[in-house]
């Protein structure tokens, strides 16, 4: 009886040891981050006083619209990370970061920025179509995007194409995601002055009509 009990303990220990060895690694979750708080680099103006801009919709390629982080390993090949995932929707995360970035960048011009959605009131809208947002094999993040400033009555005021390349400082997924955030920061800094200039021209044209 005693020997049977000892054998049972040994077998049980081996069973749980095998389970421990065969357990899968736990998943890691990531989000993109907006730029930090900005010091006032320019004085507030009345150009955009009372003007509101909605950011969206934001479109991304279907292959990126998934929980797992994708890495480009060749010209026509992508690798899906099994354990490194987005904490939520990547499309919504990009929209959130762009809205936050542009809100900070446009604040000195008294232009309020909100995230686009049904029922949101706005004077202008920035629609963003991301064609490519890849972590490349050579260690860069490549962002190709087309964006348009649209008036409330739907006419397109300006359309621009942007190409942003940001180096990845490290091999970890945290470093890769951080570089993606910096790429969105660069895109935001490209968009902000273009939008301000276009709004100035649009408002000037309306005032002379």
Number of domains: 1
CATH architecture descriptor text:
3-Layer(aba) Sandwich
The pLDDT mean sits at 85
Distance between the termini: 102 Å
Strand content: 25-35%
Strand order in the largest sheet: 5-2-6-7-8
Classification by helices and strands: alpha/beta
CATH class: Alpha Beta
CATH superfamily annotation: ABC-type transport auxiliary lipoprotein component
Uncertain regions spanning at least 5 consecutive residues:
none
How many DSSP helices? Answer: 3
**Would you tell me which CATH topology applies?**
Rossmann fold
Q: How many individual β-strands?
A: 8
Radius of gyration: 24 Å
| Molecular shape | elongated
Task: Please summarize the sheet with the most strands.
Answer: 5 strands, mixed
Fraction of residues in helix: 25-40%
Order of helices and strands: HEEEEHEEEEH
Can you tell me about this structure?
With 209 residues, the protein is α/β, with parallel strands linked by helices. It has a single domain, classed as Rossmann fold (3-Layer(aba) Sandwich), CATH 3.40.50.10610. The protein is 35% helix and 33% strand. The chain has three helices and eight strands. The strands form two sheets. It has a five-stranded mixed beta sheet, covered by helices on one side. It has a three-stranded mixed beta sheet with strand order 1-4-3, covered by helices on one side. A hairpin with a 4-residue loop joins strand 7 and strand 8. Helix 2 packs across helix 3. The mean pLDDT is 85.
């Amino acid at each position: 009886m005693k020997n049977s009990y000892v054998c049972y303990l040994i077998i049980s220990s081996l069973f749980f040891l095998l389970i421990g060895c065969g357990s899968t690694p736990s998943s890691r979750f990531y989000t993109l981050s907006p730029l930090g708080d900005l010091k006032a680099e320019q004085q507030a103006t009345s150009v955009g006083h009372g003007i509101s801009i909605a950011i969206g919709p934001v479109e991304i390629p279907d292959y990126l619209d998934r929980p797992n982080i994708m890495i480009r390993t060749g010209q026509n090949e992508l690798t899906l990370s099994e354990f490194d995932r987005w904490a939520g929707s990547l499309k919504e995360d990009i929209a959130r970061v762009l809205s936050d970035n542009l809100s900070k960048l446009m604040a000195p011009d008294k232009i309020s920025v909100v995230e686009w959605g049904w029922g949101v009131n706005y004077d202008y809208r920035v629609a963003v179509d991301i064609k490519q947002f890849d972590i490349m094999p050579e260690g860069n993040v490549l962002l190709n995007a087309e964006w348009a400033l649209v008036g409330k009555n739907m006419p397109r005021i300006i359309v621009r194409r942007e190409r942003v390349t940001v180096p990845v400082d490290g091999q970890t997924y945290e470093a890769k995601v951080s570089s993606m955030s910096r790429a969105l920061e660069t895109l935001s800094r490209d968009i902000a002055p273009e939008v301000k200039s276009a709004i100035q021209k649009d408002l000037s044209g309306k005032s002379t009509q």
